[in-house]
Amino acid sequence: MAPAGGPPLQRRLRWRLEGAAAAAAVAVLRRLSPEAASAVAAAVCALIGPHTAKGAKARDNLRFVVPHADRRELDRLVRGLFASLGRAAAELVLLERLWRERTQRLVFEADPAAAEAVARGGPAVFVTAHVGAWQLGSLIGAHYGLPFAAVYTPESNPHLERLLARLRQGFRAEPIASRGGVRKLLALLRAGCSVGLAVDTRLDAGALIPFFGVPAPTNTVPARLALACRCPLVPVRAERLAGGRYRIRLEAPIAPPSGEADSRAAAEQMTAALNARFEAWIAADPRQWVCLKRRWPKGAAPGPLPAAGGPRQGPPPE
User: Fold this and answer.
1) What pLDDT, in 10s, does the model give residues 154-169?
2) Whole-number Å distance between alpha carbons of 132 and 117
3) Tens of pLDDT along 215-238?
4) How far apart are CA 57 and CA 294, in angstroms?
5) Strand 174-177 vs strand 207-211: parallel, antiparallel, or unpaired?
6) Distance CA 38, CA 83 (A)
7) Cα–Cα distance between 234 and 225 in angstroms, integer?
8) Where are the domains of the chain?
9) Which residues in the chain come in under a pLDDT of 70?
10) pTM of the predicted structure, to 2 decimals
11) Separation between Cα atoms, residue 133 and residue 89, nearest integer Å
12) Greatest CA separation for the chain
């Protein structure tokens, strides 16, 4: 029997097995070069992932991104998505090595307005989506010499959470659990510490803001933080390049609307502009978007196809 108030025995056994499997995978990947680890993890995830419940969720999400895709094309996209997930796992495992070899592997770029905001030295809200090598975006604090806190979602499995906590130390950023709430992030920003969040997933309590032409519950916290603290809202895109290299780019900040918009309306307008940035990243290659939970409301249908030359053209051929 489980201890009073504790999880059932079956769940605790499952957690322990999951933790042991993850630790074994980490040990194997650490023995490989970053290129080999990425390839192996991608192959394994692409083989297994599409046949899981998460595979079905990924397929449903991709219908909104590439509504003209037939079943065969969706199968290809889902395999590519899970390959991207595997590569992301390898990147987290080998984070320390990637940072040690950063002069050969990491390219940091910044839009002039973003570079100016960083040069001023004040806090900023950096925001990304689960696209490409998104986790490497948290290295901007170490690269630019910024006090930096990275928001993460804790795992329910305590064995996995302890393992991931050790791996996250490679970000050289203060880890902040997402359950900590907005007040903690406000306090950090007002103390001069920048924060980083990934906010492309569904937030049931979020505002309904268009995403690929269909209203979707969306997290407006980054925009609200930027408005409350009068600091820049800067999108961060981390891309995989050839040869085990990465480009981490600070894009042009999302400006608050001009005029007399109230704070709620302003935050929603800024979040809509942020969603448009994410759409462009995802549309460039939908296989790079790792969203494994339902993104749009139940019963929603994909929006109309864009005009010729619009953003939803699908990924380049493999």
Assistant:
1) 999 999 999 999 999 9
2) 25
3) 999 999 999 999 999 999 999 999
4) 6
5) unpaired
6) 9
7) 12
8) 11-288
9) 1-6, 260, 304-318
10) 0.91
11) 10
12) 62
Both tokens assigned to 232: 């820049």
| Structure-token pair, residue 27 | 């040990």
Nearest-angstrom CA–CA distance, 185 and 165: 19
Q: How far is CA 223 from each of CA 104, 144, 252, 279, 289, rounded to the nearest angstrom?
A: 34, 22, 14, 17, 22
Burial grade of 271 (CB within 10 A; 0-12, 13-18, 19 or more): buried
**Closest among 218, 237, 233, 222 to 296, alpha carbons compared:** 218
